[in-house]
Amino acid sequence: MVSYKELGLVNTREMFARAVNGGYAIPGYNFNNMEQLQAIIQACVETRSPVILQVSSGARKYANQTLLRFMAQGAVEYAKELGCAIPITLHLDHGDTFELCRSCIEFGFSSVMIDGSHYAYADNIALTKKVVEYAHANDVVVEGELGVLAGVEDEVSAEKHTYTRPEEVEDFVQKTGVDSLAISIGTSHGAYKFKPGQKPEIRLDILAEIEKRIPGFPIVLHGSSSVPPELVQTVNKYGGKLEEAIGIPEEQLRAAAKSAVCKINIDSDGRLAMTAAIRRVFAEKPAEFDPRKYLGPARDLLKELYKRKNIEVLGSANKA
């Protein structure tokens, strides 16, 4: 078994306590490869932001669990090399079984999510509690989930929202012992969060009610990409087909980050940035075949996107 502490990682307890008290959110950025990881660390070092490196089940299969362990350790050393030893957490995003969570903990993850939201309420509690007991024995933190997000991203999909019921949150937190709670208030996975003509809006009223019931408890928002129109336009200009991609307005995310939400997950925006940059290189330089010449610009655009998110949306800049 590899302890995350040996890799230089931290869990999120102190991160979240500071975020809740400070009225900002920690970025949860997903990565699958080296360029994404470089961009995340560069952006967070340059803005002096703590960060949660997120790995989905699909990304773990794609990148290999052993390589991920050393990539996370490398990220810690890379941040120091860049001049700022920012707090870094390695987190399993949307773990769906106890066995997967246990394996990630044994390979150096400092935080895991167990998503039992698609089960009956009692079964969600039982599964989450089992993961919590194992994780806490290894000083690893656990994120649970109540409510279901619509959309598709990696191996997680649902056709429609099931909003989190505020009356259930106290009971769930008490019975499971989770360290943070992902809720469903209208955010959704993927780049197609709303239909054309539909008003993009998340239920901040549900968030306020949840905050009243579990004051000071760390809340997490998944599916929080804003799907910047300029990125969609660039993708489409160079051959893409994302005509109806619509995301969460950033001003609503800013409002959520100032309340109980202390972690906001962003993945699709990063995918869009990299795709836009790569498509542009392929269109403008069709003879180019060196991966560094198109993955490099993709990394650089992703870094700038995440720097802006930290400063303007999450409020996590200068909080490391």
Structure description:
The chain is of the alpha/beta class and 320 residues long. Helix content is 48%, strand content 15%. The chain has one domain: Aldolase class I (TIM Barrel, Alpha-Beta Barrel), CATH 3.20.20. The strands form two sheets. An eight-stranded parallel β-barrel has the order 1-2-3-4-5-8-9-10, surrounded by ten helices. Strands 6-7 form a two-stranded antiparallel ribbon. Helix 2 packs parallel to helix 4 and helix 11 runs antiparallel to helix 12. The two termini are 29 Å apart.
Beta percentage is: 15-25%
Beta-strand segment tally: 10
Q: How big is the Rg?
A: 19 Å
Spatial arrangement of strands, main beta sheet: 1-2-3-4-5-8-9-10
Element string (H = helix, E = strand): HEHEHHEHEHEEEHEHEHHEHH
Structural domains: how many: 1
Q: What is the tally of helical segments?
A: 12
What would you call the shape?
Answer: globular
According to CATH, what is the topology?
Answer: TIM Barrel
Low-confidence stretches are none
The CATH architecture assignment turns out to be Alpha-Beta Barrel
Summarize the structure.
This protein has 320 residues and is of the alpha/beta class. Helix content is 48%, strand content 15%. Strand 4 (111-114), helix 6 (121-136) and strand 5 form a beta-alpha-beta unit.
Blueprint of the fold:
Layout: H1 13-22, E1 26-30, H2 34-46, E2 51-56, H3 57-63, H4 65-82, E3 88-95, H5 98-106, E4 111-114, H6 121-136, E5 141-146, E6 151-153, E7 156-158, H7 166-176, E8 180-183, H8 204-213, E9 219-221, H9 229-237, H10 250-257, E10 261-266, H11 268-284, H12 291-314
